[in-house]
Write a structure and sequence with these properties.
Length: 66
């Protein structure tokens, strides 16, 4: 998801149309990850995923802190 966010916001010229698209897509990514994807993963994997969520940040997993 971090790659998509970089792709949405790293543009040489931000037009009004692209701004609306970026804001909407960013909101969708946060909502989908937080309320849809993580819920499904919790059901599928269980306690191991809960432990993983406590250790790893939502969008930038390689920084290693939360």
């Amino acid at each position: 998801m971090l790659g998509f966010l970089i792709m949405l916001w790293a543009v040489p010229k931000m037009t009004l149309g692209h701004l609306f698209f970026s804001v909407g897509s960013t909101a969708y990514i946060f909502i989908a990850v937080k309320y849809l994807e993580e819920k499904d993963l919790q059901k599928l994997i269980g306690e191991k995923y809960t432990d993983y969520k406590k250790r790893v940040p939502m969008l930038i997993p390689f920084i290693g802190w939360k």
